[in-house]
Design a protein that fits this description.
The protein is 34% helix and 20% strand. It has helices at residues 11-20, 28-35, 40-53, 73-80, 88-94, 151-163, 184-191; strands at 56-60, 63-66, 84-86, 105-109, 114-118, 121-127, 136-141, 144-149. A hairpin with a 2-residue loop joins strand 7 (136-141) and strand 8. The termini are far apart.
Length: 200
Amino acid sequence: MKQTSKKKINTLLVQTKLKEAQLRLFSVLDFQRILGIENYGSARSNISRYLKSGLIQRASKGLYFLADNPPSNFELANKLYQPSYISFETALSFYGIIPETIYEVTSATSRPPREYIVKNIKFSYKKIKKSCFNGYHSIKIQNILVFIAEPEKALADYLYLVALGKRKLTYERIDLSKIKKKQIVNLRSTISKTQAFGNN
């Protein structure tokens, strides 16, 4: 049954419906559809109300999540700026190719570079040419599919930044045992094309 445009929606109903929809990140339109709200303005008003109460938090302009059911950092990175996929040192750390724990989530995008701060975490996006926007796959994190570079592509993307002087590299810290050796030749040709990156 449709909610009336002026009705304030029960807090428990909001939590239940959004969780049932398995939608950790949602827009105003998503909120309107899932809660069965007739009026877009009413959906915005309800979101504003719950932002003030702390039930809902803002990820970015027009993108929200339940405070008690936040998205993973990787899901958030994929959705904050599209198209994009997790890469560089974030992906290398995820695969155990470098030993460091990474506190910044770094992604590749074919759009201009961008940065966001959400939940006190920095999300950064490095621009690559559309022709190089490949070599990624999907994995499940918290039962949600997210896009992340394959290990070899993450290394290639990272070495681009090294070649451009945007990252420093100590070769001893890279565990190449987790890289498919047959793809090293392909990496070498890719790495040489440092112009694939736009300005940051």
